Structures are given as structure tokens and as C-alpha cells.
Amino acid sequence: MKRTAIIYTLLLASFVFVFAFAIYFYNQVQSYDAKIKKNADTSSPSAYHFALIGEEMDHVYWRLVGEGAIEKEGEYDVFVEYEGPKRSNPEEQLKLLDMAVKSKVDGIIVQALNDKFTPLINQAVDQGIPVMTVDTDAPESRRVAYIGTDNYEAGRLAGETLVKDTKGKATVGIITGRFANAHHQLRIEGFKDVLKQTDGIEIVAVEESNIDRIGAEEQAYKMLREHPDITAFYGTSTLDGGGITAAAEKLNRLDDLYVITFDLSDENAQLLQNGAIDALVEQQPYQMGSRSVEIMMDIIKGKPVEEIHHTDATIIRKPDLLYQKSQAGETS
Ligand code: BGC
Predict the structure, then answer these.
(1) Where does residue 51 fall: left (phi above 0), alpha (psi -120 to 50 degrees), or beta otherwise?
(2) Three-state SS for 85?
(3) DSSP assignment of 259-321, as one string?
């Protein structure tokens, strides 16, 4: 009797799970179709329809990529379907790519997080849909072009900056977005390659934040407890800086830690301003979005395009922030 009850409970639970998943997937397809239909229903639908698929919709960095692309819509008579998982989720991102291929858009611009993106990119190309990668490249795929940071070089730049600022003496903890993300791997590889050449620097721990500020804080906190000798942190994605400095503050380590991380978000700029962060690697997400549309148009029009389009990655320190502000003041 007890066994039958367990079997029924398991069957019921599986049914509820499958049902909930079916509803979730159905809703996603519906919202995607609705957006496409909205474009088709307008009195003069755009001549081209591109899908732009990023890591996370509600994220400061990806919002800029989306805005840059959408800004080009009018100029090129293109409708940019800017999509991404609500919260970073590579499997969901793959599903969005699959849907874009199935809905036969005119061009796909996608952040190719890992190897799993390659077969779908190739499938799109086989069906005559040109694909570009943005922010994170899939060089093994048949994508036509990549636009974004040279992630290996950006990692080297972060390493060189840390060596210089710490005068070649540091015990380092690394917080990375995700171990499996190709661009984060490159950012660590470049960083390590520089540090290898300096005797006084040692990396004692590397953990992932899961593209999450709280995740970064938890990992940095754990690291600082396990390795109280850490004197410097390197964060490879936007939200890592906030997490690292929050953990350092809780442990009263904010003043004596050196922190370098990626991206000039408002939060990171504030932390740089008040001295919690020492240096940032600034990327160009807005430009990645806007240039990706321009390059995709060239591809569609049959113009020759370069395969690699590296956008700038530069080091920003507190004085640069003041300079940027004064420049913005002068031009506004
Ligand atoms: C990366 C993006 C990533 C973001 C996550 C940025 O540095 O370039 O790919 O989605 O960080 O926080």
C-alpha cells in the first residue's frame, strides 16, 4: 500500500513538472511570436529582421548592447529582436537561438557562450541565415564575423595592470562569471599568462559567481575566510566587483585589498570613485550592439567583411572617471 502511494506521488509529481515545463515553453514561444507579429502588423514592417541574443535581458551590460543595436533600426530599416534569458541561463539561451533559426530571421547576432552553440550556428548558416557572434566568439563555428573585446588580450591587460599597481607583490583570488564561458576562460588565461612571469605574485583560488552579484559576494567571502593572506582580487565579469567589495567590507578588508574587475557599470564607477575598486577594464557594449547591425547589413548586401572586429578594452582608474565626466560636461 505504502509503495503504491509512493508510485502515485512520483507519477503526480512528474506530471506536474512536465505540465509546468510545457506551459513555460508555450508562453515563451507565444511571446516570441507576438513580438514578430507586432513587427509584421505595423503599416510598414521593416525590410529586415535580425535576432540579437545575449546572456541576460535585465543586465546593465546587455541592455547597452541591445540599445546600441536598436538605435540602428531606423537607419537600416531593420527590426532587431533583442532577446535573452531573464537570468543568465546558457540552456535557455540555446533555445532562443534554436527558435531564431526556426523562425527564419534574416540574420542572427549571438553571444556564443560555449561549444554547444556551434552546431546551431552552423545549422543557421546551412539554412542561409548569416550569423555573427558578439561579446563571446565561437571561432570553430561557421559564423561570418565576431564583434567584441579581444578577451585574451583584455585578460593580459588586467594582469599587467595588477602587476604594475601592486609593484609585483600580491596573493590573488579570482572571481569569474562561469568556468564554462569561453570569454571568461580567455580572460583568466591572458591574466595568468602575465602573472606567470612575475615571481612575487601567486593565485591562490579561482571561483565562479554564476553571473550573479550575490554569488560573487559569497565566493569572495569564502575565499577571504579560507585565504586570509589574499591581497588582491580579479573579477572577470560586470557584477563581480560589487560582490567582491561587499564581501571585503563585511570582513573589514576593504582598505587593504587591491581590486580590478570588468566593466564600467554605474555601480562599478561608484566603487571606483570611493576607492573600493582600484581599476576597471572598460569594454564597449553599446558599440558592439550598433556595429553588429552595421556589419550584418554589409553581410546581407554581399559586401566583403572582416572576420574579426575587436572593440576597445581599456583600463579606467579614478582620475579617468573625473576626466570622462568633464568631457561629458563639455559636450552636453
Ligand atoms: C561580459 C558579458 C557578461 C557580463 C556578465 C561582461 O563582462 O562581457 O559577457 O554577460 O560581464 O556580468
Answers:
(1) beta
(2) coil
(3) EEEE---HHHHHHHHTTS--EEEE--HHHHHHHHHHHHHHHHTT----SEEEPP-EEE-HHHH
Residues 112, 139 contacting (CB under 8 angstroms): no
Confirm or reject: Cβ of 262 under 6 Å from ligand 1. Answer: yes
At 79, list the grid cell: 527590426
pTM: 0.86
Q: What is the dihedral of CA 274, 277, 282, 283, to 10 degrees?
A: -120
Cα 47 to averaged position of ligand 1 atoms, centre (Å) = 31
Q: Residues 266-300: pLDDT tens digits?
A: 999 999 999 999 999 999 999 999 999 999 999 99
Establish whether residue 284 lines the binding site of ligand 1, counting it when its CB lies within 6 angstroms of any ligand atom.
no
211 Cβ closer than 6 Å to some ligand 1 atom: yes
Which comes out higher in pLDDT, residue 57 or 40?
Answer: 57
Atom of ligand 1 lying closest to residue 55 CA:
10
pLDDT digits (tens, 9 = 90+) for 80-95: 999 999 999 999 999 9
Q: Is the CB of 237 under 6 A from ligand 1?
A: yes
* SS3 state of residue 94: helix
Atom of ligand 1 at shortest range from CA of 263 = 7
Closest ligand 1 atom to residue 240 Cα is 12
Q: What's the CA gap between 260 and 160, in Å, rounded?
A: 11
